[in-house]
Amino acid sequence: MMQTQDSTPGKSQEVDLSAEVAATIDRETGDQVRCTRIGGTKYRCNWWACRGGEADERGAVTGLASTLFRVRKSRVLHVTKTAAGLHITEAPRPF
Fold first, then answer.
1. What CA–CA distance (Å, rounded) separates 76 from 92?
2. Which of 5, 29, 53, 69 could, after both became Cys, cross-link 65 (CB 3.0–4.6 A)?
3. Average pLDDT for runs of 10 along the chain of length 95
């Protein structure tokens, strides 16, 4: 079954901004950031860091070192896209 988007005038077309958020969000050297849209304008973002060994500035490691990553930080973010770019704020609790 093929899915199509509703093109009803006046209805907003929600776009998954996960990749754009992950690419632009602040991170520490060696972090890998993974973002997943969890509904509407809310995204779960996890900052993964290497426990040991060396990682390059993008977080890449070799061999079995990849099992040494841990979630350093996790946040639910409210993200909208404007003409000026992404507007990212931490979502209020409870989510």
1. 8
2. 53
3. 42 81 94 94 94 58 64 95 95 78
